[in-house]
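Chapter review: from sequence to fold.
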Amino acid sequence: MIWLKAFHVIAMVTWFAGLFYLPRLFVYHADATDAPSLERFEIMERRLFALMTIGGGGPGTQRPKNIMAPPPEPKKWVGDRQI
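The C-alpha cell string follows.
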C-alpha cells in the first residue's frame, strides 16, 4: 500500500509542476516569431500536457493530440434538411 501512496505523491508533484510551467510555455509560444521556435513550443506544450494527464489514465490521456486542433466545421442546413 505504501507504493500506492508514493505513486500518488509523485503524480501530484508532477501535476502541480506542470500546472505552473504550462502557462509559461504558452507565453513563450505567444512571444515566439520564428517557425522553429513555434514548432518547438507546440511540441513542448503537448508533451507536458500528456505527462500531466498520464496520472488520470482516462480520457485526458487522449487530449494532447487534439488540444490544438481547430474546431469542427458547423453543419450546413438547406431549408429543413441537413447536408
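Two observations follow directly from the output. The CA atoms of residues 50 and 62 lie 8 Å apart. The mean pLDDT is 78.
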